[in-house]
Amino acid sequence: QADIHESLEQPLAQRGVAMAALTGDQLIREAAMAALTGDALRQAEDEFTDAFNQNRAVLAGFAKCESALDLACVRDGFHLGMARALRLETYQPVEAHIVRDVGVGAAAAAGLDIFPVSVAAARRAPGWKAMVGEVMQQAALVGSDLAGIWKGLAVGRLEWLTATTATHGLKTTLREALKMDAAAGGGGDILRGDENDAKMVWMYTMASQLPPCRDTAKAWQSAANIADPLQPLEGYRAELWDARRAEWAPLDVAVQAAAERAGTSLDEAWVM
In angstroms, rounded to a whole number, what is the distance separating the alpha carbons of residues 19 and 249? Predict the structure, then answer.
């Protein structure tokens, strides 16, 4: 499973400029591509690639999103940035609306983050839909699939957030138990082996809540004789929780891949 950020950084022309779509209609995309050939198509691809590169940091903001509303803000901020970088005519009235917006000015004067405020103002602009439509048209001209790529990012992030919420109580219990055991031992330091055992329990429970990981979770549930995926400590038998067992490796890989799709890592999520 390639790192999701690496996949975003591949040259767009090489990837078929895999961003943006017109309502997902393949026939429309093919017709749009047919309108450009040779040097004109290469120029359009180069311009779109350059615009995307200018806005890559905005798109990568999905990894910090904590809700569907946050994700929508990043998506629309990306549309806004693409329109600006592509120098689209439809961007001008939207920009003018943002400049005149009282809320944007107040946020800037107060030293607040103006990104979400600017995006909200842009959405209220009379020309917002036309601008987004033109971004999609430009993308379709070079055969991109922005809707598909964004869906992958958003779904991966939302699935991860749902799983971390469902398993947060268990993770807290496991981490507190590790601290108490370490303190009782007199040293105060958590043993790596104990932490790996606890993390293994949490990873399994995460897998049970992540749609792409559920098959591997079911295999481990059977191997470790787990009755309730959200209560894996009930009837816990340490000898069954052996990472060397054949059923563990696929689960480990699947959960790590899910973390990458969400723009994070297991180590980062464990300490959150």
Answer: 33
Residue 159's CB is within 10 A of a number of other CB atoms, namely 18
Q: What is the pTM of this model?
A: 0.79
Kindly report, residue by residue over 151-167, the tens digit of the pLDDT.
Answer: 999 999 999 999 999 99
Give the gyration radius of the chain's Cα atoms: 23
User: Running DSSP on this structure, what letter comes out for residue 190?
Assistant: P
What is the Cα–Cα distance from 160 to 264, expressed in whole angstroms?
9
Looking up tokens 């899910």 gives 258
Q: If you count DSSP H runs as helices and E runs as strands, how many of each does the chain have, helices first?
A: 14, 0
Q: CA-to-CA distance for 177 and 183, rounded, in angstroms?
A: 10
Q: How many residues does the chain have?
A: 272
Q: Exposure of 120 by Cβ count < 10 A (0-12 exposed, 13-18 middle, 19+ buried)?
A: middle
- Tokens encoding 169: 């109580």
The pLDDT of residue 9 is above 50: no
Classify residue 54 as left (phi > 0), alpha (psi -120 to 50) or beta.
alpha
Chain-centre distance for alpha carbon 23? 21
Rounded Cα–Cα distance for residues 226 and 172 (Å): 20
How open is the CA angle 210-216-220, to the nearest 5 degrees?
A: 115
- Yes or no: say if 65 and 71 are a contact pair by the CB < 8 Å rule: yes
- The end-to-end CA distance of the chain, in Å, is 24
